[in-house]
Amino acid sequence: MAASGLFPTPVDDALGTLAAELRALPPSCGPVRLVAVDGHAGSGKTTFAGRLAAALDGAPVVHLDDLATHEELFGWTGRLRAQVLEPLAAGRDAGYRVYDWTLRRFAGTAAVPAAPVVLVEGVGAGRREVRPWLARVIWMELDAVAARRRGEERDGPDLAEFWAGWARAESAHFAVDPSRPHAATRVDGVTGRILPGTVGESSTSSLTCDITRN
User: Are 137 and 36 in contact (CB under 8 A)?
Assistant: First the structure.
């Protein structure tokens, strides 16, 4: 999957404001401020996380798609804890094995330096088992039906069966372990604008973007 779309100039100020707020938070995982970007598959998480990471001067991003597998769509918490959370909590750089969705096995690794802010993006990033390590949960505000429609249009008919199974698993997950109520910052999944009444809202500028991937 690949992200696309460009931010208009005013977005830089809004992202910069949010980035400054995140840097000012107390560390939550050793010396790191761990920030989750959560939402339904197809809601714009990866695009937003990438642009926020750039505003944070290249903050590391952990992609939960790299830790999930075909057999364990939401069974990645043990891998995240052992390979990422515990090393960062000890003040060490971390790294995790990356799952190849084509080869259906783990292949390669990704480095996660113990930076001042580290982003974790993916469905369930703000789940119950991860929240004790988090400094902030950001939620992409786009309903499941619209998000799925976007994802299916992006991925094409070859992945329709996968999307059907994913939708069932995602619905079951959020039914028992919702992330949205714990999000201090919510972002419109269509426009990319930080929503009123949430932490990170800018009174003078808004985030607008063309988000095309989850």
Answer: yes
H and E: helices and strands count for the chain: 6, 7
Residue-level pLDDT at 158? 76
Cβ atoms < 10 Å from Cβ of 1 = 12
Asked if residue 22 lies in contact with residue 202, where contact means CB atoms within 8 angstroms, the answer is: no
DSSP labels for 58-85? S--EEEGGGT--SS-SS--HHHHIIIII
Say if residues 194 and 14 touch (Cβ distance below 8 Å): yes
Do residues 24 and 136 make contact, with C-beta atoms less than 8 angstroms apart? no
CB atoms within 10 A of CB 113: 15
pLDDT digits (tens, 9 = 90+) for 59-71: 999 999 999 999 9
The H or E element spanning position 162 is helix 160-176
Nearest residue to 34 (alpha-carbon basis) of 80, 68, 96, 72:
80
In residues, how long is the chain?
214
Alpha carbon distance, N-terminus to C-terminus of the chain: 9
- Of residues 94, 97, 46, the one with CA closest to residue 68: 97
This prediction has a pTM of 0.86
CA distances from 16 to 46, 58, 81 (A): 18, 13, 29
